[in-house]
Amino acid sequence: MQIHVARSDLTDMPVDALVSPSNSLGIMAGGVAAALKARGGQLIEDEARLSAPVAVGAAVVTTGGDLFARRVIHAPTMEEPGMKIGVENVRRATRAALIAAGRNGFEVIAMPGMGTGVGGVPVDEAARAMVDELRAHRQPLPATVYLVGTNDMLLSAFDAALKNAILPG
């Protein structure tokens, strides 16, 4: 798997699927999820809510609506909107997103800092957990993952986590 850090608006990424750190109810009211809904349309949330509740550690795939990406992977980091979470939820959501990407044949996906906004997980902890899960994923798909952010703190945390990751051997 190739892993790249990208300074970008997630909603602009030209990939097969975008990962939305969501809640189990499929309500896209805050953070990255709200941005995806605002840019991609209400249909994304409508489809996500049809599958609710989705457990932390599971993921569902919906349309990308008006986004460039044709699909959105909803990987809950919390049960209800606005909850504070621990880093284990970041691990479980990241793993679920990767499994969903593979199961759906997505070659290239983009994911934001999982749990770093509303969830309140420190960016360095979240970045390490996400990179650990990416490195542990042994399936052929996704072949490429973009870790996406717009602020220096998150991008630096992604870079540091990748630099310090224990490579599979």
Task: Outline the structure in words.
The chain is an alpha/beta fold. The protein has a single domain, classed as Leucine Aminopeptidase, subunit E, domain 1 (3-Layer(aba) Sandwich). 37% of the residues lie in helices and 21% in strands. The protein is built from 5 helices and 6 strands; from the N terminus they run ββααββαβαβα. The chain has helices at 31-40, 42-50, 87-103, 123-136, 152-164; strands at 2-7, 17-23, 60-63, 71-78, 108-111, 144-149. Strands 1-6-5-2-4-3 form a 6-stranded mixed sheet, with helices on both faces. The longest helix has 17 residues, at 87-103. The protein starts with a strand and ends in a 5-residue tail after the last helix. The relative contact order is 0.21.
